[in-house]
Design brief:
The protein is about 35% helix and about 15% strand. With about 150 residues, the chain is an alpha+beta fold.
Length: about 150
């Protein structure tokens, strides 16, 4: 309901937290590597669902230059490694929605979703109630991941 009824903040989420570490949404940031940013999805599909975005404000992957693309992919690879070590998922969904028609909630800043998956992580709740149960509070997940990124 927070997503549906909550106030939409102006501007780009990624640019806000990149430019202002004191932005309230910056509490979702778990890592700030060279050329990218990694933050928890505020409305996750599963525990550990993160978004990896380049620093560059570009809406389409093909508009990133080679260095920006390399930074994005390097951050994504490291994120997968840290999630695998920290949360022990059995798989991942990794992808991007580009453009509003694809379902992109932030269409003007390309980002990759990295969603940890476990066998049996789906249940009747999404089917019957259109509700997804996430078994850990965002702040607990954030603390674990920040510590893991710092140690890696």
């Amino acid at each position: 309901m927070e997503y549906i009824t909550g106030e939409q903040k102006p501007g780009c989420l990624f640019c806000r937290v990149i430019e202002n570490p004191n932005d309230p949404d910056a509490e979702l940031v778990v890592w700030r590597p060279e050329g990218a940013i990694v933050l928890l999805n505020k409305f996750p599909y599963n525990a550990g669902h993160v978004m990896v975005a380049p620093i560059a404000h570009q809406g389409e992957l093909e508009n990133l230059d080679d260095a920006q693309t390399a930074d994005l992919m390097s951050a994504t690879k490291k994120t997968i490694t840290v999630l695998r070590q920290t949360l022990k998922p059995e798989g991942f969904n990794i992808g991007a929605n580009t453009g509003r028609a694809s379902g992109a909630g932030i269409p003007h800043h390309i980002h990759l979703h990295v969603v940890p998956r476990w066998n049996g992580d789906t249940n009747f709740m999404p089917v019957l109630a259109e509700v997804k149960v996430v078994n850990e509070h965002l702040q607990q997940t954030a603390a674990k991941l920040r510590e893991a990124f710092a140690a890696s």
